[in-house]
Every structure is written in structure tokens, then in C-alpha cells.
Amino acid sequence: MFHKLPIANDIDACFMHKVDGGFSLKKFKEMAELGSIALEFIRARCNDGTLPILNLPYHRDDIVSWKPIVDRYQSLYDDVVILGIGGSTLGSATICALVDGCVITAPRIHFLDNIDPISFDSRLSSFDKEKTGFLAISKSGSTTETLTKLLIVIDRLGNKNFSTQIICLTEPTDNPMRRIAATHGLLCLDYDPKVIGRFSALSTAGLLPAAIAGINVEGVRRGAAAVLDATIFAKNPLDNPAIAGAAINVALARDHGINQTVFLPYVERLERLSIWFRQLWAESLGKEGYGTTPINAMGVVDQHSQMQLYLAGPRDKFFTVICSDPRGLGGRIRGELAGSAAESLNYLLGHTMGDLMAAEQQATIDSLISNCCPTRLIRFSNLNEEVMGGLIMQFILETIAAAQMMRINAFDQPVVEETKLLIRQFLQEEN
Amino acid sequence: MFHKLPIANDIDACFMHKVDGGFSLKKFKEMAELGSIALEFIRARCNDGTLPILNLPYHRDDIVSWKPIVDRYQSLYDDVVILGIGGSTLGSATICALVDGCVITAPRIHFLDNIDPISFDSRLSSFDKEKTGFLAISKSGSTTETLTKLLIVIDRLGNKNFSTQIICLTEPTDNPMRRIAATHGLLCLDYDPKVIGRFSALSTAGLLPAAIAGINVEGVRRGAAAVLDATIFAKNPLDNPAIAGAAINVALARDHGINQTVFLPYVERLERLSIWFRQLWAESLGKEGYGTTPINAMGVVDQHSQMQLYLAGPRDKFFTVICSDPRGLGGRIRGELAGSAAESLNYLLGHTMGDLMAAEQQATIDSLISNCCPTRLIRFSNLNEEVMGGLIMQFILETIAAAQMMRINAFDQPVVEETKLLIRQFLQEEN
């Protein structure tokens, strides 16, 4: 199956033979037993359907059912604003970033996730009331921030006929969002109660906004299915990229004091994927004193910001470099425009911007390896829907596998729930 | 002097008396000697003028000299694009974020920092060629990424009379940027050679774009001067917020395994400040195996993303929570719009969005403290120019002080320079 995968993993540089006491191939292979446990967990959930995120990649019927909504939003609106926070928006923001650089005539999608009153008002007032659609997403239907934004948007749209302008997406239970929708005659879609927010990128929450943005969401599901297939049918757990990735992360944290996992894509459109991964990894694994800190980085800009620390600071980081092949892309650097600077820029002239990007990517990889930093490479030729779906699926599987290896429940977030209660208390006391 | 400060620091919750072997007030006071060394270093550089960033806050003449440029760019352009990377742009991006939420008629400022060919072309082509000005910034005048972007912009503007449309900012030496400017008749401003990129937020690089954006940059300098004054005239080093902050960071890293410093503002417009701080801290301190990892976070969104890890994961983080007072700001959550959901939302209705933000901020602070996470609070009532200048100055001073305490040179970046050579080699080999 491996030849069909949209992305390739290379873990050779994770093993630091040069460093005394470093992580070795032998130690990695000792993770095989934990790898088997994780793989069996994933296979079982896939077979019994108790984790729908492991079945979603094969579904197409839901996508077909969205068509009337997509058509209506695409024909009526220049802008579509997603109201949500955390898991309700990070997945769709990740996938919607694919539109950058494409000629797409669909609405621009915006995410109003925070509740900073100054920034929220500033952004909301920048949209044309008549030409903007809204989609409010809260799995539980009781997310305080999202309900606040929804009620304020209803208020701002005023007395006009706004009932077709807002769609809600929430569980099919009697919850506040559903009651607000009923009060104002808003369409209310069903959020699958078994899909956990931070794992929802491939469900309606992640893909409906992307479909409205004009993205081929079947392609995203196809790429995810290819990576999921490769895991389910893996003969040896550690031969599978997601299980191997989890094993490396867990072993480096447990035995080598590596408590940070750096996510470093060399593709600007993957900036949101880093933020999505940050939540997935942190909230799934940060429990009972366990968990490593996900660090979002971006090539090449972080070469001018974080690389000094990465290469010369403490040995407490594992690196995942995500690489495309940008050679030949972008504007060409024409020597005649450099004038009297041409001689000192000899190395650069005649190349494209993509050539420079590729050289910087390779220089970083070589520097990480020569400085004995444990480094994994994930490669593809160009970012498209299949690659995006494949990346999302790999990191979902890797997170679930890491939790299994650490004997942690990947699917709850007990502390966050506690804080939510505290917020209600504060507001109630002020009433 | 303290009453004049635009920001207040509260370090009480840094000392975890509840935790066995935790960081205590006694241990903090043992840092007084290192604090004195750091403070003397800062005072000496301030007096002898060898670190101009410590004199800049008192200057106004340079701001006056920019007026013709500011007037021209404001009258001619709808958009102004800054071409630069790292220290050349992070400071101005930080300050320019102040315009969000203000009614300002000046040009919108954009930062094209990366060289991803697809994203760069997409963003560049979104601007109206006739109504867009450019400002290219490279201290050395030989930053490969910035020269590449400058030459491609010159190419794209075509054969028209673009020479007034681009301004360069670089050292007054014979360098490639200056030669390119001379070739095309572009105005070339002087970048002070003694101002290091990542410390340049209060110099021309940071403030000229902000002035074009319509920001009162004198206010930024005033706020910085207030914080700098408070440091220079501090009687006891550890009574000064910047020296104390450095001492806490250094002691927690050295003695308590705390290798991450989380920067958590509850003000959306401070998102860029976190990214600016990330470079300042990482590149200044990440040397010789030392340095802690700066983690950018954002309230309230990271309550739904990172807080589970922060509160229940490993005890390896120091927290700086930056707090404003948003109570009463933003839209009010009107009960009559909630319909049949009103009863279950009783705690929320009647409050403003800012009230909710304030409650979430307080809930996070209380949760961090009750979970024994070492936490510093930096408070101000509302974000304005003085506060922004004060924050920038405090973190510049804190970084310099931390480097002194760690006996590290804060002002070089040796590994980054090595990588730059590698990039040139790769491109040369391909020629």
C-alpha cells in the first residue's frame, strides 16, 4: 500500500548514534510491544465503529448532502464567518488554508475564534452585512464563547431577515445552541456526538467550511483513507509511520528528557496545521504529569528566529520537518535587475524563489542532523487535498497511538472542563 | 518612579511554597548578586552609548525626520508592504497590530516575511500595483530572502516609474541592498549599524512602518522610556520588574528543570508581541546548551487548546500572563435574543463580551496558581502606545539581564550565520 501514500516519512535521523547514550535503533525496536498495543487499539476501534473518526475517511454521502448549503452560501456571500473556538474551528482553518494561491471564486472564509471585544468588533465590522454568511459550531451546544459570539452576531444583524444567513452545527440534543437556532428559525445541522472536537477535522465541522471555500473535500478524505489503510494493514507496527512516530516521541520523552516536539513545515499554507496539531497533541496527552509540549514553527522564517536555540540550546527537542519540493516555483531572480550588486549575489541570481526555499529547507535539515538533533522528515512533492488529508490522518493516528503507549485517555480534557465551571462561577457572582 | 509605569508586574505567584523543593522567595533573593551584575551592565551601556537601543527611547528627532516619507506614503497608498524577515519585521509587526480596532485612514501595513513562492505570489498579486508602496528592510543589506523579494517586486512592478514606490532601509555601508537601490534610484535610509535586528523594535525598522500605519510612535518611545528609567534608577535590582523577571526565569531553569517560558497575553492585538518575544528570547539566549524555549500562547483561545497540558502536564513551564481589563467592552449579550435557551445561559446574559474575557482571564490565573504553576502577572488597564512601548522595553531589558546572569552574549547568533553560508553553498552548487 505504501506506494499509494500521499506523504513519505523518513525517520533515519531520529537515531543519534553519534551521541553517547542517545536514542538508538535498538531502543526504538524495543518499542515494538507498545506499538502492537497501540495498533490493536486502532484496529479494534476502526472495526467496531466506536471511534467514528476512524471511519469518516471512507464516507462520501455526508459530503453529497451538504451540496444545497454549499451552493447557497457560494452564490449568496462574498465572505463566510465561522464562529467557534478550539476543536470546532482549528481543523477547518487548517484545510481552508489550501485556497491560498489558488484562483477560487468561492467566498473567503474567516475564523472569529477569540472573544477579545476590541478585535472581534473590529473584524466583524469589516464585513458587508448583506454579503456575509455565518456558521456557528459547538459540539456540546453550550460553549460559552461561541454562544456569546452567536448572540452578538444575531444582535448586530438587526431586525432584518437574517434567518437564512446563519447556520448552526451542534449535537442532536436539547442544548442552548439548538434552542437559540429554534428561536430564530436558523438551520441546525447535526454534529456527530461521537466525534471529539479536536479530532473533528475530517467531519462536518472541518469539511463543510472547506467545501464552501471551494476545496475538493473528497480529496482530503481520500488522502486520509490512504494513510489510515496503511496503518490498519501494517504488518509490523513500527513499519507504520504514525505508530513509529508515536514510539519515537514517547521513547524520547520517557528516556531522553526530550519534552518538546517541534513541528516545522516548509510550506506557508501549513501554518494552521501546526496550530491544529498543537491542540491535538497537547490536549490529548497533557495529563497526569505526562505529555510533551508541541512547538509550532515555520520555515524559513524561524531560521531567523528559533533556529539558534534549536541548534545550540538544550537537547530537549524532537523535530518533525515537513518538506515540499518548491524548486522552480515562483518568480525568477533576474541578474540584470541587481545592477552593481550582481557580483556579490552571484550565488542567487538566475534561481527562483522556490529554489531558495528548497536550499534553505535542505540547509536546516543538514544543520539539525549535523548537530545531532533527533529529526523526522515528512515529504511530499506539492501540497494538495490528498496530502492535507494524509497529514491530518497521520497525526490523529500518531496522537491516539502515543496515548495508548502512555496509558492515557486521549479523548478527555478534564482540566479544561474544571476551568469552564470556574468561568461560570465568576460571571454568576458578578450578576 | 513606579507610579508612572504604563504596566504593573506581580511576581507573588512565582514562588511555589506549597511544592516541596519549589522555588522560594529565599532562593529568589539569592539571585540579588547576579541581578546587580545585570543591572550594572545595563546602566553602563546606557551611559556610554554602546548599546543605542538603550538610548533610543529618549530620541524624537528621527521621528520628526520621517515626516515627509510618512506623509507621502499616507497620501499615495492604500497598502504598504514591508519586505524583510526576522528582526527586520517582527518589531514593526508587533507595534502595527495596535491599529486593529482603531478608526485609522492610513494605509494598511502588510508583512511579506516568508519566501514560500506560492503564498508570496498569492499575497503580492492581491495588492493594487498603483496603490501600494514598499519598504524593504535588511540591516546588513545582504539578507538573501529580503533581496530576493525586493528583486522580484522590482520585476513585477515592471517598466513603470516605480522608483518612488520602494524605499530601502539598510546600514550605511557598500552592500547589495544599497547597490540595488542606487541602480534603480530608490531612496535608501540608514539603519544604525549598532542596533541589532531583534532588538530594533524601537528604532527606524520598528517605528517607521508604525508611523506610516498612523500610530503615535512618540507614545511608544515614551512608554519605553518610563520602563527604562525605572530600571536605570532602581535601588535594589530585584525590585525592578525586568531584572526580577530575568532572575526568576534563570533560577527556574537552572535549579527547577523549567525549560519553557510561556507568554500568554489576554489581548488579541498582542499576538505579534509573543512572536517578537519568541525571537528575542530564543536567539539571544539559545547558546552553549543554555536557553529556555519561549512558547507563544493566546487567551482565551488556548484555554481550548493548550491549557490541559499547562495545568496537568509536566511541571516544566514558567508562565507570564499579560492582562488587560476588558470589563464592559464589546457587545452586550442580550437575554431576549437567547429565547428558550435563556434559562440555561443565566450566568452569561446581560454581560458584555469583555466581561466574559475578564472572567476567563481570572479563571486561568486562579487555575495556574491553584495548580502550583509559577506565574507572573503583567497588568495594564487598556492596550495603548505607552503600554506597547513599556512591554517591549521590559522584555528587551529582561533578555539582556538574563544573558548577563547566564554569562552569555545576548547580541550574536553564531549558528544562524553558519546556516546562511550553507544556503549559499547549496545554491552555488546548483548553478
Automatic annotation (TrEMBL), chains A, B:
Belongs to the GPI family. It comes from Candidatus Endolissoclinum faulkneri L2. One of its GO terms (molecular function) is monosaccharide binding. Pfam families: PGI. One of its GO terms (biological process) is glycolytic process. InterPro entries: G6P_Isomerase, SIS_dom_sf, SIS_PGI_1, SIS_PGI_2. SUPFAM superfamilies: SIS domain (SSF53697). PANTHER family: GLUCOSE-6-PHOSPHATE ISOMERASE. This is Glucose-6-phosphate isomerase. Its EC number is 5.3.1.9. Transmembrane segments: none annotated. It catalyses: alpha-D-glucose 6-phosphate = beta-D-fructose 6-phosphate. One of its GO terms (cellular component) is cytosol. Keywords: Gluconeogenesis, Glycolysis, Isomerase. Pathway: Carbohydrate degradation; glycolysis; D-glyceraldehyde 3-phosphate and glycerone phosphate from D-glucose: step 2/4.
